[in-house]
Design brief:
Elements: E1 8-16, E2 22-30, E3 35-39, H1 46-53, E4 61-66, E5 69-71, H2 78-82, E6 85-88, H3 99-109, H4 117-127, H5 143-155, E7 161-165, H6 173-189, E8 193-198, H7 201-207, E9 210-215, E10 218-220, E11 227-235, E12 238-244, E13 247-251, E14 258-262, E15 269-271, E16 281-293, E17 296-302, E18 306-312, H8 313-319, E19 326-331, E20 337-338
Parallel strand pairs: 3-8, 3-9, 6-7, 7-8
Antiparallel strand pairs: 1-2, 1-4, 4-5, 9-10, 11-12, 11-14, 12-13, 14-20, 15-19, 16-17, 16-19, 17-18
Helix pairs in contact: 3-5, 4-5, 5-6
Amino acid sequence: MREKVPVLRVRNLGKEYREGFKLEIPYMSFAEGKIYAITGPNGAGKTTLLNLLSLLEEPTGGEIFFRGRKVNASSPKAIHIRRRMHLVMENPYLFRTTVYRNITAGLKIRAVEKSLAPELVRDSLQRVSLEGFEQRPASTLSRGEMQRVVLARALILKPEVLFLDEPFVNIDRRTREILEGLIRGIKHLFPTTVILTTHDLRCAYSLADKVYSLLEGKLVRGSLENLFTGEVVRKGKDRWVKISPSLRISVVTPKEGKVRICIPPEDIVLSQAAFHSSARNSFRGIITNIYLSGDVVKVCVDAGVEFTALITRASYQSMNLAAGSSVFITFKSTAVQVF
């Protein structure tokens, strides 16, 4: 059976700005009906990437493919591709009119028959748990209600790709839970691919089928949970990054001066006694939190700074770990990514 062509795919995608920021994405692929999360700190390039994927900006290099065909923002055909996708921005704009008129704005552009609009709006509002809001003035909505109206405005168009830029910013816990449920349910309504950016790693890993991590415009292997800034210190051929007055991490890098480092949580080994191996980084710490999710357990350890490790449920049970327990964290110098 032949593998389906990805809805979106990029190859050697790049974007450079005069201020010096450079986005460099060797490869990315997005399948139909899946949810993808793009995580990273401010300035990592998440919004730039969404703008490129949604054909709002032209890259300075590389290629974007929509359903196997090369596309670009300046092509005359770009507008037709854009209408098959929808971008919800971090600070969504609502017209100063009713919820009904806001939701039907996209239908008018697409020349959908006017008589179909009332039923379509009712269905969309029901999906986002805002039944009866048709005549509510948009200016009276809370931040969370605005987010749901904007999502209803997107879903009424049945986009093939839905981009959500930081959908969980500045909303309360209840609204976040509603939005998470809505996003999970989208693929059961239509075969829509959802690509979202978020700072919330918990949301990213609980929602997405695949998580991409960005740092300073580059894809990073694994999660960005163990992300630190420090100064490279060297002694002969050895290199460390000093991330606190009492903690330095052995690394392999030709870089000098101030750097960022990232240790993938899956590369950290937990043990109840000092772990004897060739790994040059080993620190004693106290478990602060434990999160169980299926067969994977996330363990947070305070070793002067907080580290996050991912272990199997079997390992967690065999070590009988608990918050407040003393453990050792160990990882190799080669596991540390330096930027």
